[in-house]
Amino acid sequence: MQYRSGIPIVIFTVFLALIAFFLFANLISKLHRQTLDNKLLRETLLAEQNLFEFSREFQHDLGAILLGLEGYLAENQVEEARIFLKKIQNQTLSQFNKQYLTQIDYMYNLPIKAVLYEFSSTCIEKEIPLNLNITADFREPPIDLLDYLRCISIMLNNAVEARFDNHFFYYCQYFKKSE
What is the full DSSP assignment across 88-139? Predict the structure, then answer.
């Protein structure tokens, strides 16, 4: 008889232990998510700071660049002007690509944001020209989030792997279709 009276206590104790376990797991999950969000925010802040610094430097240098170009053209040195422009383009291409990272910052869906940020970083690292146009916030993707992440991840990874020569250019456009 005493054995039966202990069963509800054991069940109650197991139930409380399960609740405690799930609360603890939820707490760990939230902490991990906040850590990832914090890391993403730091990376975004660093990219913004670098872009701001580049913009300031470029604004300062723009006058000198235009004067140099004007000097070549005033002397009819068209080929030298082309070489000068090509040199400027090669030096500033990666910095211009970073401007597209700021569009990713305004997205609300962190997993999608992370995939696009990683793709943009890969393009910058491999010096692949990128034009990114994001007009949707992706609060709720059109399909299941995991399936959506797999689709865009596979598509973007295949695009990076398919690069054949230096004349390759990525134009990615993500937009929200009107209702």
Answer: HHHHHHHHHHGGGHHHHHT-S-HHHHHHHHHHHHHHHHTT--EEEEE----S
Token pair for 96? 């211009």
b/e per residue 10-42 (b: at least 16 CB within 10 A): eeeeeeeeeeeeeeeeeeeeeeeeeeeeeebee
- Output the pLDDT for position 23: 95
**For 39-49, what is the mean pLDDT?**
76
If we measure between CA atoms, which residue out of 125, 116, 127 comes closest to residue 157?
A: 116
> Residue 15: pLDDT band by 50, 70, 90 thresholds?
very high
Burial (CB count <10 Å: 0-12, 13-18, 19+), residue 115 = buried
